[in-house]
Predict the structure.
Amino acid sequence: MTHITGHACGTQDGDHTHGPGPASYPDFAWNDLYTEDASDTADPDLALLAPADDLPPGRALDLGCGAGGNALALAERGWRVTGVDLAPRAIASTRASSCARGLENRVELAVADSATWQPETAYDFALSSYALPPRGPARTATLATLAAALAPGGILALGEWDEEACDWGKPGDLAALSELTEAFTGLGLDIVRAERQVVPRIQHPSEDHAVIVIARKPHDTLETAGRPTTGQSVT
């Protein structure tokens, strides 16, 4: 699968061998969702970005960045951001928006599937905003990548549609809170906060029930003893 990175304004992603049907969603044309001209770059998800407010700006990962609303918001706050998405037109929109806002030197972009992309550096903050593949090997690989991408002490924020509350989607498309917390705990992360909540319709106009997980990679494996349970906070 083609993996393209770059900062340059005006750079085109060109022809890509992966097309709109990667293994995680073989029948869905993700590329058709995006305009590639920056007009579809949405407002950031402030709830998922909030954990980064308490961190000094460093390196951030937005895995499944779409048209770049969250990635660009982090860049505007001083972060150096890697945005990854499987849709070339999504990456083109993110690039166009970053150039329009003068942020191209803070944003690196890659066209890649989250199930196969591998980080080349460690990140202080990682984000996944309603971008997980369906339950199965691709989701398992994506969750493992998010955990592995974190630097010691790094924070992960993940939002996904709540399969217990939403009445749409095929079996396995959405996520359960217990599924995500158990997966991240098994990957060595501490759960800082895990909850089900109503997402403002202004943010996601068609659905409004989400599961939110905030997790932290310990500085030392000794810290994994006595992890907090779901809903508790780490101080």
